[in-house]
Write a structure and sequence with these properties.
The structure is a single chain. With 351 residues, this protein is an alpha/beta fold. It has a single domain, classed as Metal-dependent hydrolases (TIM Barrel). The protein is built from 12 helices and 13 strands. The longest helix has 16 residues. It starts with a strand and ends with a strand. The C terminus is likely disordered.
Length: 351
């Protein structure tokens, strides 16, 4: 819980990780990719305040104690959602796997939600793995990395028939939230594999699934906004948007948030720290204090008030994941419904 100026914020970090990118986990023959990937991640951390930067060695493999202190003791987070990424082409045990996340999370009841992942190129074996993970860890969501390399393939689209097969299976297993990495690339993945167009197809054809587009499609912010405003079940995941831009690119950050507020709305935006790239503490505190600049070029953007910040920092994700929020953090009815689906500012019937 974070309190500022007499206001209390229930914080859900909806996009975070517990990875192992240490050299002893690199696949022989793929060391250049394993090393390049984590060094690229580490470079992104440089976009945060200097006092928050880690050494590369610490960044490659932080401990359970590090995570619990950074996220919960210091970081103001009430509930965190693990988003796995396997990358087993380069990391022997995987980079940030469902099992690694969940087994650690099980030691701290009530603190974590354990999402899983799938890759349609894994075919029947992948479907069986998805079923096992949902049954074992109670996952309500999946994290998808459409640019991940897999046996010579350098990406897939959510609109592919194979992806639809997995989305159908996931829905039958009780999955309702699909987090899709659609943002900045990480070396050596291909930027074009993160294009947002395939989300448009899948969101239309799977109206009962929520598609949380992580990193809001950056650098394709305009493409994302025009797509998300017509798809009621598409949400804006702010991981990277806050961590990479709020400190390093404040003017661009204001434009990104302004476009999202105008087109998508404060009810469909979720906070994510992207830990361990960035720690949540400075992001939560900075976002609570942030105001849209009072300049002519930002005049046509909606203002973001305290109620909107409370939705974005936790209440919207809590609605998507059925997280029980104490009464003291609830908003009055006049503030609108967190997590509500909207199209061009008009609530969907029954939302």
């Amino acid at each position: 819980m974070y309190e500022s100026n007499g206001e209390k914020y229930f914080v859900v970090d909806s996009h975070m990780h517990y990875w192992n990118a240490a050299p002893d986990n690199w696949v022989p023959g793929a060391e250049q990719y394993a090393e390049g990937w984590i060094k690229c991640f580490h470079a992104y951390q440089g976009l945060g305040p200097p006092e928050t930067h880690w050494s590369l060695e610490h960044f490659e493999k932080y401990s359970e104690d590090d995570l619990m202190k950074d996220v919960f003791e210091d970081g103001h987070v009430d509930v965190a959602i693990f988003q796995p990424t396997d990358l087993k082409e380069w990391y022997k045990e995987g980079f940030n796997t469902t099992e690694r996340n969940a087994l650690m999370g099980e030691k701290h009841p009530g603190k974590f939600i354990h999402n899983t992942r799938f890759d349609p190129r894994d075919s029947d074996a992948g479907l069986e793995e998805l079923r096992r993970n949902v049954e074992r860890f109670g996952s309500k969501g999946v994290k998808l990395y459409t640019a991940e390399w897999n046996n010579g393939s350098r990406g897939y689209k959510l609109s592919d028939p194979g992806a639809y097969r997995f989305l159908e299976a996931a829905q039958k297993l009780g999955i309702k939230n699909v987090h899709v990495h659609k943002g900045p690339t990480i070396w050596p993945l291909d930027k074009d594999a993160f294009d947002v167009a395939d989300v448009d197809h899948a969101a239309t054809d799977f109206p009962d699934l929520n598609f949380i587009v992580e990193h809001v499609g950056l650098p394709r912010i305009d493409d994302f906004c025009y797509m998300a405003t017509q798809e009621p079940n598409v949400y804006a995941g702010l991981s990277v948007a806050i961590g990479a831009l709020m400190y390093a690119r404040p003017q661009f950050f204001a434009r990104v948030i302004g476009e999202l507020l105008f087109w998508v709305g404060e009810d469909k935006m979720t906070f994510g720290s992207d830990y361990g790239i960035w720690e949540p503490k400075w992001q939560v505190e900075g976002f609570v204090d942030w105001e849209m600049p009072d300049r002519p070029e930002f005049a046509d953007y909606p203002k973001l008030g305290t109620a909107g910040k409370k939705k974005i920092l936790g209440l919207n994700a809590a609605k998507l994941y059925d997280i029980k929020v104490p009464d003291e953090f609830q908003l009055p009815a006049s503030a609108g419904t967190p997590g509500a689906q909207e199209v061009l500012g008009e609530p969907v019937a029954g939302a």
